[in-house]
Give the backbone structure.
Amino acid sequence: MKGYWNKISLTWFSFLVFLSTLSCSAEQQHENEMSKGVIDTSITYSIDTLMNNSILKGNFPGAVVAIVQKDSIIFLKAYGNRALLPDTLPMSCNTIFDIASLSKCVGTTTAVLQLVEQGKISLEDKVNKYIPDFKPFVSDEDTVDITIQDLLTHSSGLDSYISHLKKYEKRFNGNPDSLMHLIAVQSKRNFKPGTKFMYSCLNFITLQNIVQIVSGDRLCDYVQKNVFDVLDMKHSCYFPSNVIVPSDLEIAPTEMQKDDVLLCGRVHDPLARLLNEGNSGNAGIFSTAEDLSLFCMAIMNGGAINGHRILRPETIDKMVNIPISNDSVVGRALGWDVASSHSTLLGDHFPKHCSICHTGFTGTSIVMDLDARVAIILLTNRVHPNNGGSIKNVRVELSNIVSKMIDFE
């Protein structure tokens, strides 16, 4: 019956989760817990309580939590289920997630900063150096070109998103070049660059195109070769539905569509999926908690782990420092959040002078304290099956729990 499952109440799904949790054997629970270091039992108990209660409330069907300290994963555990439809399937620590906007910092930002290090682009470069028809901000008093730094810090003034996607999908037939032209020429410039903060997926689609123009590779291929392969992130990619993965790994589905098609292995973000063919600067990466732990280890270790470097230490330093030209009204460093209105997931104790964070719409997030070298990775598919889960407060509480183990100086 068309649309039937979309009408099932969130309460009913929470009940299904509860029953499934009860049915898990002690052996299954053990398999989903892979602590690799010493962590206070009161903290593990608090995390368990937070995750299990959140699942029962219907915030998300399941989750994987990883805590990284220096070069080790000291806590890694799966909770609940990765799928409620078409069957109820348990979550595991190996589950592959659509990490949504975490793609902006893990993939696109890293690619851009690598090209900056190589001298192929500059943060001060005007976007129209690479995309000639990219229009500036124009007012009665001023004409100001948007720079690469403006894009990275979400201070460009570009619209947050593109409305009426279905209209453009039909007009463009999913053509990424047409999407970039739309952003370059038609998207509104809402304020003078560098003076305000407006989170925008269009910023990172523009950065995607700059990476592709300069490197000659599609963003997905560039990141695979220069980030995932370098760090041995074996289960990270942009198109998991096109990649053969080991049979013991599963992909967490996201949202049931209006035509009763469940998204699984295809990027959830409509802009990335419908207009950018899944190869997109704003979303598109699929990954696991262990792979993202490797990435966080590298970032917290000055850009390298196990002898494999993706960025220089001086570049990492810029990730936690808001550019002076952007002033405190922006609150964003290069690709990462430090002190903007979106940085609440840092909780009450992570210090803003050395911490960075980012979220993903599907229910994912990363918090890192670069001084203490502690990272929190939270992966959920809160949009499964009907985009009804809420996770904002869960992120904050998780950060507050983990902060108890950190000796802040």
